[in-house]
Structure formats: C-alpha cells, structure tokens
Amino acid sequence: MSITAGSRPDGTRPPAAVEEPRAAAAAATVKESAPLRAGRAGRAGGAGRAGRAGKVPLRVRWRRDRALILMTSPVITLLLLFNYVPLLGNVVAFQDYDPYASSNGITAVFHSPWVGFEQFSRMVEDPLFWSATQNTVVLFVLQLVLFFPVPIALALVINSVIRPRVRAVAQAIMYLPHFFSWVLVVTVFQQILGGAGVIAQTLEEHGWSGFDLMTDADLFKYLVTAQAVWKDAGWGIIVFLAALSAVSTDLYEAAAMDGAGRWRRMWHVTLPALRPVIALLLVLRVGDALSVGFEQFLLQRYAVGAGASEVLDTYVWNMGIQNGDFSYAAAVGLAKGLIGVCLVLGANKFAHLLGEQGVYKK
C-alpha cells in the first residue's frame, strides 16, 4: 500500500482545518527564504564581480597609501634619474659618437653616425678585452671561494659566544672596516705589506730583504681578495647573524636531547636556517661577477701593471675616459650589463631548483 503526500499512515487524509495551517506555514517559509536566497546570490555575484575586478580601485588605494607613496617618491625620483635615465645613453654603443659634433654632448648623439654592431665586433676582436675578461673571471671565482664562506664562518663563531658584551664588541670591530674607503684600505695594506711596511722593516732588521707584496703581480689576485675580506666581511656577518637570531632555541634543545653534539647541531639546525640567506646572497654575488671592483684596482694599477690589475670596469674607464673612445666603452659596458642580467636569472633559476626563493619567487 502506498502512502501519498499529506496522508496519514492509515491512508486517510487529514481534515482541511489541519491541512490549511500547514500550507500557510510552508508558503510563509518560502516567502522568508526567497529574500535570503536573493541576498546570498547578490553577495556571491558581488564577490564574483570583485574577484573579476581583481584589485581595489586606484582612487581607494591612493587614499589608503597616500602617505607611503609620498615618502617613497624622493627615492623613486633619484632611482629614475641616476639608474634608469642614463640607460638611454647606451645608444652611443651603436654609433661612432663624437661629443664635438654639436654644441653639447647630449645633442651630439643626434648628429653622430650610426655604425650598428661595429663596436661589438671590435670588442670581440680586441685581445685586451679578453685579457680584462679573464682577469675578471679569475678574481670572481677566487673571491667566491675564499671570500663568500668567511662571513658565514665568522657569524657562526660570534653566535657561539655566550656573553653578549663580548659578542657586541667583536661584531663592532669586524664591521668597522666596512666604513673605510678603498684609499684607506690600500694605505693600510701598504703600511703593513709594502716595501716600506712593518713586515718588510722587521725582516730587514733580521737580515732579510726584498719583501714587497704590494708590487708582486703574481700574488695580486690574492692580495685584492684579502683586502675585500678585511673590508666587507663585517657586513656579511650582520646579515647572517640576523638570520641566526630567527632560529628557535627549541630546535637546538630538541637536537641536544636527541644526542646531537655541537657540530651536529650546526650541520642540521644552523646551516639549514642560513640556507635561504646564503642562496639570496649567492645570487646577488653572481650578478656582480663582472663587477669585481673599480677603485680598488685603479688605485693599485701602476704598482703591479695593467696585465694583472686590468678588469672590465677599469678597461671601460681607460677606453672611455682616458682614450675618449666613448662608443666602444659603451659597447663593452652594455655587454657586461647584459651578461650580468643573464647570470642573475640563471643563478635565481638554480636557487629555485634547490627549493629556495632567491631574488624573486617563481
């Protein structure tokens, strides 16, 4: 036996007096739920429209972030004037630029003849360019191997010091040379390792002579690497100490409870915590592979000769400023910049393969 909707179990229908209130209640429920459904649909439609719009309107964002935009506008202006506007001058790399072709150097760009890629062909055929490139690459690899691990090691040593006062004094002493100019750094090394320096005079008093590392072309690459370590290692120490301060002490305590010694804790807790910072600084360091220094090498150029101290930065300066060959110097500088960008992108891609963020996310 089937039971129809609204009927009793015995098959009989309820009286009309009972069925009418039920119908009225159902109709009222439908009327009340219709606005709710409409409201939910409206909110969903609004959210969908907002999602399709994607962002907050510009007028709202300007009103919200007006103070921050005004504070950063001087920095953005300086960045545009000194970093991006000069990029327009790279057009002379495709010209035979003559600064005397017009009344000033800017309008002379429009009066100089176009030569296309002639300057780049000349660059490829120039043996002095390849000699400077070789010195640059050798110095970069040497500084990457000898200079890059030094701040990490010193940061680990300072972080292991228990007394905060001793740690602060050691950090300040190591960071102080970062504020010295290269003139002062070269002078300090000259007074210590030069022919009239402290070490040479001490050896002469004991019967030794001929000690002068500042004029030894064969050891020059190690000398400039030592200068870079002494000057800039303190800055790297601060960066790595800041990363170490974010490591939870619970990790060290848990590793110690599991029986890990000091070296095990450093290998399994400290170094993994430094890994993102190491990857970021390594990418930035690779980006500066062709910019190993300018003032440092220019100051010591005449002491060891151009064969040992000529790098791409000094080569561009010599060709452009000293010799007045602006188009060729611009071509070398443009090629150097493009190679640097490619190195940054490649190093950042390698950091992504290692699971790190690098300079920017995927």
The major pleated sheet works out as: none
Share in helix: 55-70%
Class of secondary structure makeup: mainly alpha
Q: In percent terms, what proportion of residues is strand?
A: under 5%
How many distinct helices? 16
Q: Total strand count, please?
A: 0
Quaternary assembly: single chain
Concise description?
With 362 residues, the protein is mainly alpha-helical. The protein has helices at residues 16-53, 58-84, 118-125, 127-146, 149-159, 164-175, 182-193, 198-205, 220-245, 249-257, 262-287, 295-299, 301-304, 306-309, 312-322, 326-353.
What does this entry look like structurally?
- This protein is mainly alpha-helical and 362 residues long.
- The chain is 69% helix and 0% strand.
- Helix 3 crosses helix 16 and helix 10 crosses helix 11.
- The longest helix has 38 residues.
- The N terminus is likely disordered.
Which descriptors apply to this entry?
16 helices, mainly alpha, globular, 69% helix, 362 residues
Summarize the SSE layout with pairings:
Blueprint: H1 16-53, H2 58-84, H3 118-125, H4 127-146, H5 149-159, H6 164-175, H7 182-193, H8 198-205, H9 220-245, H10 249-257, H11 262-287, H12 295-299, H13 301-304, H14 306-309, H15 312-322, H16 326-353
Helix pairs in contact: 3-16, 4-9, 5-9, 6-9, 9-11, 10-11, 11-16, 15-16
